[in-house]
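Posting this for the archive.
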Amino acid sequence: MNRGIVQSLLAALLFAATLASGACSTGDAKGKGPSSGPAPVAVAPAAAVERPIARFIRATGTLMAEEQADVAAETAGRVVSAPVERGQPVSLGAELVRVSPIETDAQLKEAEANAAQLEARLGLTPSGLFDVNAVPEVQNAKASFELAQSEFNRIKSLLDQRVVSPSEFDQRRTQMEAARQQYEAAKNGAAQQYQMLQAARARVSLARKAFTDTVVRAPFNGVVSERLVSVGDYVTKGMKVAIVVRVNPLRAQLTVPEQSVSSIAVGQPIVFEVDAYAGRQFEGTVKYVAPALQADQRALTIEATVPNGSGVLKPGLFATARIEQATRTPGVLVPPSAVVTSAGTSRVYVVSGDHVDERIVTTGDTVGDLVEITKGLKAGERVATTNVGQLADGIKVS
């Protein structure tokens, strides 16, 4: 009986040993399994640097023609020719519209004939100088006066010798005085006729101008913006017939906020963009600065000249400009790959030991291949530049 009890105890001990061995094996297997924590994210850190960078004033405005002329007719008449169209380049003096010259031509010929008649009466040529004593009527009166004076002097000497009577002497003196008056009257008449000639020549000039003005010409090199009349239309003096603009260079009329007025000066360069050519930048130079701010907007109006040799820019385009300030100020710069923007919020991940700290930042201008951080980061701090999409605050990095 004792032998059976011993065998039972041995079997129980063997079973317990087997269970213990299985438990140890299971524990060893668990101890040798993988860790439950996430693996570190590989990043390439870059230090934020501080550099003096150019600052810009942002302004908006409109492109305008350098010159714009509402060309009007100088004389009335019916349009017989209109050889230009909208958008056509024209040079200074090019014909825009021609008015019938029939009436003005007749008026010019009449004025020239009146002037020629007075010139012939005065013995003048169109380029001759006026000499009152060269006028034929004056010369005749002068000859008569000189003859009467000679006769008077002769009678006067005879009177002293008592050869002629006093009555004959008085007659000769009266004749001499009458000849002198006729001579003076002839000179006065010639002078009046010369003034009439001057008036006639002025009428010739007016008539010639009216004849010339039948052709309406371009006032400068430019482009026809609009033609307002057609052949057969009747125009009056002062009636607008065409609009000509000069589009090279253009003017960029910009509005600068009040707080930036002190930084604006003539000669500053500007860079601007227009919606019509997205991503393309154009340059100009500040040329005019208004002497006063617009009271309703509290803003300063400036104008910049913009080269437009290619003609791609058009008056009326809306422009968004940047005006470089004279002095540079320091700024903190990082690679753009370090900045993650989501829902309007920008953030960077600062490498701190074996993990990263999330920072909400405010970005500024782009300077070359770097972007400025205006708030939230200091110079010298290292930021992750790769795999930033996998990062979060406190994530382990390597």
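The longest strand covers residues 49-72. The chain has a mean pLDDT of 86.
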